[in-house]
Design a protein that fits this description.
41% of the residues lie in helices and 24% in strands. By secondary structure, it is α/β, with parallel strands linked by helices.
């Protein structure tokens, strides 16, 4: 995939911000408990930058735990949705590769479903620059559990319908990316699930960049195929969607 294609995928979220905010999965309480454990400090009172905040799904949860959190988001469409839903949250336009903040001003920098949109050779040094001594960089992703039969079947259908789909998601080698910087890293894997409707899942799919970049008629075709297959699997329109959530926290020297 070319840089221009990746930019197109990254830019596609603004047009589907409402669907993103309505249907993307949230995060379990256990995530924030593990984040505090691995970072070695409570969220309450911490100065946090939530980078690639999107519509503020993680930002709101961090704030609810007492963090003084600032959302950092480059997309005007996503930022507009965040402002509409959570006008009380500070919001700054920016990207992880060039953070618009002074040196040593944050206790924690978080990337919820967003670190894969950065260039780690730039975003990791930027995080280290902005973090205070002993501060932490945290990345996490919700990934559907493809060992569950219906989830694996859905993935296979989408791969067939969308050959060449890059499938942006969790950075599998994040520990290797962080190793050269001398950071103390820790990882937690959490399994959780949510009970939703087929329509909810279709809305979630609508917000995925690999569908958002398609022409409207092609996107509608793909979603219609997926809806039909899911309703055949779940005729009552209800399903349990399983996730594996991977959290990695890298702490700077104190």
């Amino acid at each position: 995939m070319t840089d221009l294609q990746q930019e197109a995928h990254a830019a596609s979220f603004g047009a589907v911000a409402a669907e993103y905010d309505a249907a993307r999965p949230s995060y379990p309480d256990a995530l924030f408990e593990e984040l505090e454990r691995l970072a070695g400090r409570p969220l309450r009172g911490a100065e946090v930058l939530d980078v690639g905040a999107g519509t503020g799904i993680a930002t709101r949860l961090l704030a609810a735990r007492g963090a003084r959190v600032t959302a950092v988001e480059p997309s005007p469409g996503m930022a507009a949705r965040l402002r509409a839903v959570s006008p009380e949250l500070p919001l700054v336009k920016g990207v992880g590769d060039e953070l618009p903040f002074h040196d040593a001003t944050a206790d924690l920098i978080t990337y919820a479903q967003a670190f894969h949109w950065t260039d780690p050779a730039r975003s990791v040094p930027e995080a280290i620059r902005v973090l205070r001594p002993g501060g932490a960089l945290a990345t996490w992703w919700n990934v559907k559990d493809h060992t569950v039969d219906w989830v694996g079947a859905m993935g296979a259908r989408l791969a067939e319908l969308l050959p060449g789909n890059p499938g942006y998601g969790a950075v599998d080698d994040i520990d290797a990316l962080l190793e050269p910087y001398g950071l103390r890293t820790g990882t937690a894997l959490l399994r959780w699930e949510r009970r939703i409707t087929v329509d909810h899942l279709i809305t979630d799919l609508t917000s995925r960049s690999y569908l958002a970049v398609l022409p409207p008629e092609r996107r509608a075709e793909v979603l219609a195929v997926e809806r039909e297959a899911l309703l055949a699997e779940f005729p009552d329109g209800l399903l349990t969607e399983p996730y594996v959530l991977r959290l990695t926290v890298a702490v700077t020297p104190g």
